[in-house]
Amino acid sequence: MALEEALREELLNFLSKSGAHVDYGKALKGFPLDAAGKRPKSVPYSAWQLLEHIRIAQADILEFVSKKNYKEKSWPADYWPKSPAPPSEDAWDKSVSAFQKDRKKLIALLKVGSPLEPIAFADNKTLMREILLLVDHTAYHLGELVLLRRILGNWVA
After folding, report:
1. Which 3 state secondary structure label does DSSP give 75?
2. CA 36 to CA 92: how far, in whole Å?
3. Most buried one in 1, 25, 51, 101, CB count within 10 A?
4. How far apart, in whole angstroms, are the C-alpha atoms of residue 151 and residue 9?
5. Residue 45, number of CB atoms within 10 A of its CB
6. Looking at the domain 3-152, which fold is it?
7. Mind listing the pLDDT tens digit for each residue in 20-71?
């Protein structure tokens, strides 16, 4: 197997399997929506804010690597929802669904694109770099979400 193909397979595994970290589905499974907007003492964000931040960051990376007319977002305002609670009852499900759709788009992009080829319209960054950044970022915040669930008493391992 060529190096690039082996690398592609590893990146696909990072995007679709949990490995050493809790995966997205398990971190969210059974989350009680009445707790989505709660911020325990000394915790700067709620589960809703973490969920949306993870989704927004992934959508941003997808847009960065796939659209020539990418417009940079403003940090931190465009990456974190202001309200600790979801704006509606179905907002949580819509966020989860949007994350999953964007994840599938990244997987499809990786299957046809070179992980090592610089992307001219993306500041010559590679798909590999952006996927590794995304996987690292998502794992970090999912860990925070699990810790938040433990603090709130709604984590079932």
Report:
1. coil
2. 8
3. 51
4. 36
5. 18
6. Four Helix Bundle (Hemerythrin (Met), subunit A) (1.20.120)
7. 788 899 999 999 999 999 999 999 999 999 999 999 999 999 999 999 999 9
